[in-house]
Amino acid sequence: MLLGDGDGFVRCACGHRHWGRYGAAGLLLTDPERGVLLQRRAWWTHHGGTWALPGGAIRSDENPAQAATREAEEEAAIDPGAVLVTATSTEEHGTWRYTTVLATVGAEVQPKEVSKETAELRWVTPEDVSSLRLHRDFAAAWPRLREQLERRLVLVVDGANVVGSRPDGWWRDRAAAAARLRDRLGALVHSDVCGSDVPVPDAPDWCWRPRVLLVVEGRAVATEPHADVEVLAAPSDGDSAIVDATRTARTTRPQDHVVVVTADRELRARVREEGAGVLGPATLLHLLDGQCR
User: Fold this and answer.
1) How far is CA 263 from CA 164, 169, 194, 267, in A?
2) What global pTM score does this model have?
């Protein structure tokens, strides 16, 4: 057997033997209609015969999400373009780590056993997962993973307040300043935002691929849409539009973590009443600058 980049067993600081020289990752894919996709490992593999996630060793040039989606394609014929990555959770073993990548189906997928490592693929309802013979590590992690299934981090951004927090000439051309912020937020959508950097109290050790809603007002209402950022133009009262967007997000998907980015004290109090967390513009800008952990 020829070993590829990242393949090989390592012994972690806890004394256990694990696959993946640079760590490993698995894809926890959820379909609202079918449940979560599980893989029964072939008898000859490490922990053969147990149920776990499609996944494997991370390559030296990959991040965990790239590794998990690649492995899911190699083992289950899941098109990476058909899944939406929403969050990641990492189990640290000192000198080795395993990352679970949560994702939802963004298009129709029909998994197939295309790898000799896969004995069977099955959609399983969350209620039935524990009844299967699970891989020991997946069994230990499943309760905390289940708590975050289909949950997303939603950032509702007070555009005027954020761009006004830095003296970069935004007042001369508010539309251009809003567009610059929109583009930077678009990059954040594909980054991992740590729960310790935003107010997600029940999941501080998770990282999130946020859904971003940018609320603009005044001269910035002409800000054009972005492929990855939802731009909401406030017809008059920007604060009320932010409260409405927060309320809609909380009502439509009450399981999501909704966080409003603003320094306005009155607005912060209003969105807290809607059940949202709050984040200051400075922290968001540090995230955009890559200065948060």
Assistant:
1) 10, 19, 21, 8
2) 0.88
> Which tokens is 236 given?
């008059």
pLDDT in tens, 34-87: 999 999 988 777 677 899 999 988 888 899 999 999 999 999 999 999 999 999
For domain 9-147, give the fold.
Answer: Nucleoside Triphosphate Pyrophosphohydrolase (3.90.79)
Do 217 and 234 touch, CB atoms closer than 8 A?
Answer: yes
Alpha-carbon distance of 89 to 51, in angstroms, equals 19
Q: Where are the domains of the chain?
A: 9-147, 153-288
The tokens 């147990």 sit on which residue? 50
Q: What is the pLDDT of residue 290?
A: 78
Looking at the structure, give the CATH architecture of the domain made up of residues 153-288.
Answer: 3-Layer(aba) Sandwich (3.40)
Sign of CA dihedral 128, 131, 132, 137: positive
The end-to-end CA distance of the chain, in Å, is: 39
Among 277, 289, 86, residue whose Cα is nearest residue 192 = 86
